[in-house]
Design a protein that fits this description.
heterodimer, A: alpha/beta, Spore Coat Polysaccharide Biosynthesis Protein SpsA, Chain A, eight-stranded mixed sheet, 12% strand, globular, B: alpha+beta, Arc Repressor Mutant, subunit A, 2 domains, four-stranded antiparallel sheet, three-stranded antiparallel sheet, 3 helices
Chain lengths: 434, 197
């Protein structure tokens, strides 16, 4: 314990404060594992967001939509592609949000994946507006196939892929379109907010999680040209970029796949802070764990199988760096946490309560900082009222999800039951599994 | 002649044991007529037949329903499928194909035809078997006027008499006329027998 405290209190010692510069070299020579863990957590999980916020405070204009040039005074046609299977009434909310947008030059294509409920009838009621077309697929073919069906019909200069359980805001398009003034930009992701925040405790945690993941993380990745996923919940694409790729490939993890293919084709990807969408998130723990199982397996499929060549440097340093950062963060990191816990238990048993307690407090301070930064940058999300008091418990919320990650990464690496019914079996059997 | 007597006169003109069926005729003002000997005016005959039904002397059997022009009420309304975007009837039907392996979806004409099957324009692989390599998400329409593509066209109309053109919204004002065949009821037969006696 003394050793642990020593490494943390050393920089605060009057002597070292006075000679602050000598404290850092002292620490850099540390052989204390915990020091390096804390340093890693700070550098990976706090520093990028702090730098982002400093940038936001001093160069706020960089975070607002770029000025309009080519699109000043005109609205190019934007095609919304919504693919869904049994979305039910949420398709109505989704379509209405687009029709009620301040941006009027839109068409909406709902590609129905052989729904067995009344989704098609509900969506067809909007066809008389002249802006909505409903394409009912004759077979169940999965999301990417239906997005490709919609792409065949799309007439827009831009494509907005939107999930049926998501919705846009009145100003979403006006905040996202300006990024396409740069002709090299192929896709722009919005900030994604949680719509059903008050549905359960889990949705409140997810509200906070989404601001960290889909706003703050995406934004610092945006600044470093390291965006590795344009979310399937909602993303705006340049139609010519998507067509040049031949649309979506088949398989799981369609959003990661199209993002990496765009990166490989040298399209620039951006994130919009002010362009926002909101979505429904899982309400129950079972549903949430199934969702994260799927995400984890898809991530391994995409990163370590189909697109592992991204890490070779063939597509440039940034792509390789972003690739390895993702592999470390999403694949290796969960096992390191478990390894560390086991190490503490077996070799540093006496220190465990203090170290775990210390890390918990340290982690919570980092999370609170992120909460405040997120709240300020997004102008109110996540809300203090519903989420701030949950921050100290956030790491507990992550525990079952960490277990899911560890379990599912191993299953995917060992190729145990790789198929998921999101892709029908007749199609799964035909697609290459790298 | 009283109204009742005139009605009985009309009743006597109907075939005794058969249906009086409409005969379709494009040049007839109503698109059909009833072949009744000595009946001079088809409009008046139709009105009399309805009065006979109301009096219980005849009964009617539904035959068909015809659409009438919202402008001129003519039966010469040509109803056809039109484009959702521009209202043109210049539509071409096509079948879309979906390649399982690479996910390409496009009109069947975009696939190359080769002796061993179809060639995918995205991945250039050969598609041999329907159901195993590929299937069809459906049959769609392409507008020859504005190039819009869609699954379900609208219904529009063109009146061949007045030239009026109607889109899906205009077609909601189409009038409809039911066409019936008629036969004499037992009550009608008794009335005829009484009149003869």
């Amino acid at each position: 314990m003394n050793e642990y405290l020593h490494w943390f209190l050393t920089p605060l010692d009057n002597f070292y404060l006075y000679f602050g510069l000598t404290a850092i070299p002292q620490l850099m020579q540390s052989s204390n594992l915990i020091f390096w863990v804390v340093t890693f957590i700070f550098v990976r999980y706090q520093l990028p967001v702090l730098m982002l916020y400093v940038g936001y405070l001093f160069r706020r204009k960089k975070f607002e939509p770029p000025p309009l040039k080519e699109y000043a005074g005109r609205e190019p046609l934007v095609t919304f592609m919504i693919a869904g299977r049994n979305p039910g009434y949420s398709i109505v909310t989704c379509i209405e949000s687009v029709l009620n947008s301040d941006y009027k030059n839109v068409e909406i294509i709902f590609a129905d994946d052989y729904s067995t409920d009344n989704s098609v009838e509900l969506a067809r009621t909007f066809e008389r507006t002249g802006k909505v077309r409903v394409i009912a697929n004759a077979n169940h073919s999965g999301k990417p196939a239906n997005l490709n069906v919609a792409l065949m019909f799309a007439k827009g200069e831009f494509i907005f892929v939107l999930d049926a359980d998501s919705q846009i805001y009145k100003d979403t398009l006006h905040n996202m379109l300006p990024y396409f003034e740069d002709p090299a930009v192929g896709g722009v992701s919005p900030s994604i907010l949680v719509r059903n925040t008050r549905a359960s405790w889990l949705t409140r945690f997810q509200e906070f999680e989404y601001v960290m993941t889909y706003t703050l993380n995406q934004l610092w990745r945006d600044r470093l040209n390291m965006i590795m996923i344009l979310s399937g919940m909602g993303t705006m694409f340049r139609a010519s970029a998507m067509r040049s790729l031949g649309g979506y490939d088949m398989g799981l993890g369609d959003d990661t796949d199209i993002t990496i293919r765009l990166r490989k084709a040298k399209w620039k990807l951006r994130t919009s802070l002010r362009g926002q969408i909101s979505t429904d998130v899982p309400v129950t723990l079972g549903h949430l764990m199934r969702q994260r199982s799927r995400w984890t397996r898809n991530m391994v499929k995409m990163r370590l199988r189909k697109h592992r060549d991204l890490g070779s440097g063939r597509y440039g340093f940034t792509n390789a760096f972003a690739f390895w950062e993702q592999v470390l963060n999403r694949v290796v990191h969960p096992y390191v946490i478990v390894g560390l816990a086991l190490y503490m238990h077996f070799f540093r048993g006496a220190d465990t309560p203090v170290v775990v307690g210390g890390l918990y407090v340290f982690g919570t301070i980092i999370l609170m900082t992120k909460f405040l930064i997120g709240h300020d940058m997004t102008r109110g999300e996540p809300s203090f009222k519903t989420a701030f008091w949950l921050v100290p418990f956030y790491m507990l919320y992550r525990l079952p999800l960490l277990a899911v990650q560890i379990f599912q990464v191993a299953r995917e690496l060992l190729m145990i039951k790789p198929w998921h019914p999101y892709v029908p079996k007749r199609i799964w059997d035909q697609i290459p599994h790298h | 002649m009283s109204d009742d007597q005139q009605l009985l006169e009309t009743l006597a003109l109907l075939p005794a044991d058969a249906l009086l069926e409409p005969i379709w005729n494009y040049s007839s003002p109503r698109g059909f007529y009833y072949s009744v000997p000595h009946a001079k005016d088809q409009e008046r005959l139709a009105a009399d037949l309805e009065r006979l039904v109301a009096a219980g002397f005849a009964e009617r059997v539904f035959v068909d329903r015809i659409s009438l022009c919202p402008n001129c009420s003519s039966h010469t309304l040509n109803v056809r499928e039109i484009c959702l975007s521009c209202g043109s009837s210049n539509l071409e039907q096509f079948k879309a194909l979906f390649h399982f392996r690479c996910g390409y979806v496009g009109p069947d004409a975009s696939f190359g035809v080769e002796p061993g099957g179809l060639r995918c324009p995205k991945c250039h692989r050969l598609l041999a078997d329907l159901g195993t390599d590929y299937d069809s998400p459906g049959t769609f329409f392409r507008c020859g006027a504005c190039a819009a593509q869609f699954q379900t066209p609208e219904i529009g109309g063109r009146c061949l008499s007045c030239g009026g053109k109607f889109d899906q919204h205009g077609m909601q004002n189409v009038q409809e006329r039911d066409v019936f065949a008629y036969r004499i009821t037992e009550l009608g037969k008794n009335a005829l027998a009484k009149r003869a006696g």
